[in-house]
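Q: Hi! First time doing this. I have a protein sequence and I read that you can turn it into a structure. Is that right? Here it is:
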Amino acid sequence: MIEDELIKIWQSSSHQERLKFEKSKLMLELQSSLKRLHRWWRNIERVNSISALITIPVFMFFIYRAPFISMKIASALIVVWSIYVGIRMLGIRKFKPRDLEENYVHYLEKTRTYLLAQKRMLETSLNWRILTLYPIYLLFFVELWDKPLARYIGIISFSMLIGLGIHEYYLRKRRVKNEIMPRINRIDALIENLESH
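A: Yes, that's right. Below is the predicted 3D structure, encoded as structure tokens:
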């Protein structure tokens, strides 16, 4: 009964009112989708912050207590690396749009810039995040290779690190393809739709 009345109202409405309705529906869907994505990104920032808060003190301790010079150098490099990753992750925040700034098109353009920054960071994380850690890790264990137990632990943990790096690379690549790019495309379509009318 109510559906029939809604259909009649829809059919009797003008073309311009239907377009407004479609635009508002697209905007609401996009807002909901972006909230989930922003929540996911906030969780990534939290995980990186917590891991840095754990990693930095542990390797600061190794700088002072490690028995070998190569371990001390590797520990210092890991501290620098952790700070760099944290700064790089938090640097994305400057692109985050505030709630509906000047107008909706401006908000969508800033959101697109924010998503493109996230996309760039995720696509290049293999270079600046994962591959930079491997040489540091090898440097940490270089003076322990003559000890069988340390060599065994080093090989297993390095293999796990490589496996984790490969998993993270494909996970981030899939996240860009399935979540960030569709939202960027929807924003582009919505901007084009809003500017054409």
